[in-house]
Specification:
alpha+beta, 15% strand, homodimer, 4 helices, elongated, DNA-binding
DNA sequence: TGACGTTATGCGATTATGCGCATATCCTTA
DNA sequence: TAAGGATATGCGCATAATCGCATAACGTCA
């Protein structure tokens, strides 16, 4: 759970749901220092959420657990419910 | 996501999947200072994961988002996969 | 082998989290 | 209104997470 507690890591996982990607591609997504990106990926790997594969100079990361998508969907639901609640509160006024 | 990044909070949510509970009951589960518990619950509430309801002196918390169970199941899968991987590595030696 | 592209790691500084104590707040009941 | 139980909050300290820079490690190709 801690491994997903950072916006950049959520972004990374989210991007990897579309398939394997190398660090260089991920680096374009996240506006962050390269060393930081590498660290975030290491955290996800240590947590068993992603795995890596070397191919030439590049390292490719891929999602190890597709079920994580459901967790994200739930998170989206939570946010939606929150928005709805705020709206209802506004209307009530 | 951050809201679930602490073992105590995972425990709390997990316990709340069984139904509404008051702070006093939750306090028995988590071996933690009462003020800390209150803070953790506040974090979950702010994240929209739980909601509270006052009834006399006691405050009852309940899960706002049952789908969170799926997220936990996924976490369990990740851990299981990790254990399996370790075993396979051992066997290979 | 040497230069270069890609990714990882060591380190120090900064910031965010969590904890425990004391205390405030809210509610009930005498 | 006063006392007491249940819960929340202010504060200071300790620890952990993150960041950016510099540099190391790894692989390729001339």
């Amino acid at each position: 759970m801690k491994a997903l507690a950072h916006p950049v890591r959520v972004l990374l996982v989210s991007s990897l749901t579309e398939g394997e990607q190398c660090v260089c591609e991920l680096n374009k997504l996240a506006d962050i220092d390269q060393s930081g990106l590498s660290r975030h990926l290491a955290i996800l790997k240590k947590a068993g959420i992603v795995s890596d594969r070397r191919e030439g100079m590049k390292v490719f990361y891929r999602l190890e657990t597709p079920c994580i998508l459901k967790a994200f969907e739930c998170a989206v639901d939570v946010v939606k419910a929150d928005v709805k609640r705020r709206n209802d509160t506004l209307k009530a006024v």
